[in-house]
Amino acid sequence: MKLPVYATPLERAWAWAYRVICVAIFTFLIAPILIVIPLSFNAEPYFTFTEAMLTLDPAGYSMRWYDNLLTFGMQAPDAMRDRSWWADVWNNATWVRAAKNSLIVGFFATILATVLGTVAALGLARSEMPYRKAVMAILISPMIVPIIITATGLFFFYSNPCSVMGPLAPQDGCGRLTSTYLGVVLAHATLGIPFVIITVTATLMGFDRSLLRASASLGAGPVRTFFKVQLPLITPGVVSGALFAFVTSFDEVVVVLFIGSHEQQTIPRQMWNGIREQISPSILAVATILVVVSIALLATVELLRRRSERLRGLSPG
Amino acid sequence: MQAAPQAGLTTNDGQPLKAALALATARARRKAFLLVAPLLLFIVVTFILPIGQMLSRSVSNTQFYDNMPAVVAWFEANSGVAPDEAAFAALAADLAAAQAARTAGAIGTRINFDLPGTRSLFTSTARGAAGLEAPFREALLAENADWGRADLWAAMRSAARPLTGAFYQAAVDRKLSAEGNYEAAPPDQAIYLKLFLRTFMLSAAITLICMIIGFPVAHLLATLPLRQANLLMILVLLPFWTSLLVRTTAWIVLLQGQGVVNSTLVALGVLTDDGRLALINNQTGTIIAMTHILLPFMILPLYSVMKTIPPSYARAARSLGATSWTTFRRIYLPQCVPGIGAGGILVFILAVGYYITPALVGGASGTLISNQIAFHMQSSLNWSLAAALASMLLGSVLLLYWVYDRIVGIDNMKLG
Amino acid sequence: MKRLLILSTALCVPGLAANAQSLTVMSWGGAYETSQVEAYNKPFAAMKGITVNMVAADNPATPIKAQVEANNVTVDVADVEYADAIRLCDEGLLEPIDAAVLPPAPDGTPAAEDFLPGAVTECAVSTIVFSTIYAYDTTKFPQGPATMADFFDLEKFPGKRGMRKGAKANLEMALMADGVPADQVYEVLATQDGIDRAFAMLDKIKAETIWWEAGAQPPQLLADGEVAMTTAYNGRIFAAQVAEGKPFQIVWDGQVYEYDLFVIPKGAPNKDLALEYITFSTDTQRLADQAKWIAYGPARKSSGSLVGLYQDGKTEMGPHMPTSAENLTNALASSYEFWVDRDTELNERFNAWLLR
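Output (structure tokens, whole complex):
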């Protein structure tokens, strides 16, 4: 942002104002996310900075809301903190159970979305792919359709899954997918697929197809070529697609609210209940943990992106 | 092996080259399609079909049709005739059967939808329907004089068809009149068009604000040296990667009456303790929080377009005597238009369908059409009306999606 | 098609079912849920060696209806209001409960006589009497409001109001504030003019009102200073007053009280266990125990004498109950007959009014 030598005083003033504006906008973007971190250490159950916090008095800070995350929902929270206490945390604490559910659902949804999405992206990236635009539009649509419509559609479908077979459906239905882990995993995979498609096709755009012919000419079959040549080169794209899919699942609340039950209580669903009922600083402690997680994920994706660009020779790196 | 000269070129094994090429292309096309097929099938079965099935509920009208067979038969046999003794006899028989099958509530709920306040007419009359005796007209009118109402019979006639447009009529604020026609609902009951309008206005406002504040940031990122730009880019991407609920929570904490913003302003003496601003549970809250959440979707496409604009054009314009404002307006801005369009449509599409954030920070005045769909799904349980509203919302989103595809191209969508 | 068939066969296998037997109860969350967990769930779980899950809803009647209609029942027992219990039963969405299985009082009085009048119906058994009242923050109004009319008086008592997002109780309160005596409220509300009159009263405070949905929200709104006064369920305010020491004051004038009942949704996964849970929970001792945790009156006469102190061991529960004599001077018993028939219509009108 160097000003040219011929800049007028007005332009110089504007350049300064511009910087101030940009700083303000960056503050608007980032401050709300950072503000929850100190507040989650508040010793008082309020959402403002107390006197003690502002004067950096250690008494104004505490870990009680983090402790509360462990003890909430336990059978015997006041017992001695020994092995059995931790076992109680692991099995019964509401937030720990929610975290386990989120990770289980996120893991399987990510696997499903990544495998299906990557294979499809390989097809979509070929110039011979028929009806490419129309197919792409269908595959990306879960990202565009308002989530409430997806959730209501899936609610009816999962209540009686074989009803889509129309007259071929068995008379008394075939079980249900609502309130099951399988249902939530399938739904989350659907929501994550557009992200895998977008990132993997973007990576494949820069992929040199002559490498495939070179591999074939050296006698490798298509499967071997895929695993030995293509996959290593597009791995960064696949991994960031998978991370996007995971975050989509990890952050999803509306579909879980509609088709899940208390058995599939995930972190976002638990947060939603907490925010609607009583937004205690425990929610801020969860929020802080999630912010740290997202910083880690972002760092991973950034590193992958740079690696991928370096591999493809797009960036000085 | 003798190649006929008139047959054109052939391959080694003697086939015409054209045919062999066509065969190879077809094989390649099939291969590419086979790779996509599993996912396409998955999406169609677990996403497209369920949504289609849900939308079909918006015209489904079976609660009355399935449970009142005799009355339905009478309507089919006598179109445009005032109800006679046979009609009342059919009604009495159906109500008695409904009481035994416990469907009177469902029937009443359906008629109540067109004619509020009539649900109890069905449930209460059904309780004693088995004891009714001929002449049924007099017996039913003695039970409740409302059975003689013309608008009630018009509503029943409209409910006696298995498919209906009634829910779409309701979704555009039109109600059944006593004559059996649809007409505009009285202003105190007309809500949905207003709500659609509010949804689009708020989304437009959010999109506009995102454009205005996203532009300088994208410009800064596009003009800074790469290393610094990458660093600042993290500030844009972090909110993008942070949980939606975390960001919404953060805004609740900041904006509520005793929240950080108000308390800071009070502490600074800008506000008095009684004069705290109402920043949440209203439209202000919805706009602020949603602008924050959707801003990265504006900045990223804008940035990728601005990156491709060569700075030499601006220098050329300046050297030809243009002021910096003219250069910006005539040279730079027109080249940003694709980015503004891409970001704008994306933000608008996402905003129109928003649910979580308005539900938590919007109060009564800051909620959107999605929240009303959720209300009919979860509270009033008028699933057909929810489906009708949903299909209208979906229609407008798909229209925008199509526009986006025409302008930007779906393959050009980028993330991070 | 083959894939579809494989998919549908796979679906026939139930999802990852919980291995130990468990019972799921749906209630209203917050302090009320805590009281039920302490008084009913913990002893029942210990006695049967099972787990009892608690699920919260804004009003369990709506998810129950949705679950039964979508053939997706996951809840065994639900806690609903009177009008909803009657209506759901009318529509065939609940399992009938044979009143004969309910245990008699300790002195041998049969359950049918021991329960308060109307507390046991074809499909539901009452547990408590609760009340919708309004409460205010005493630090904001040292000379606090005292009547229902004060709640609607923004000039005398400025500040934000909180009200439940729904027609029920709000319309009654509005009419009482407008000077309608409690015993004529439903007569007036049955007429179009009466409804208009109630909405005109609500119009006065609409611009200043925050609408809550979950019962746990109003004490939170008061504590956060988001509202100066709010309608609420009396037990929630009591919990905030006594357990958390919040400076709240309940105004009993114009309270609207009614029963809360346990029901079993049709097709509940553990129907028999659900019935056992209900008979266990609604015996004399259990109902009295619940009153140790929250200020709701037990639905059995024999439980009344067993109610003593709050679990802190020093707060006398009597004066905090909706049914205590001094709180009943101007009180309204919610009419289920009225709401069974008018609920849909008035809520539609209420929502249209809200969005206007």
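Chain A has a mean pLDDT of 87.
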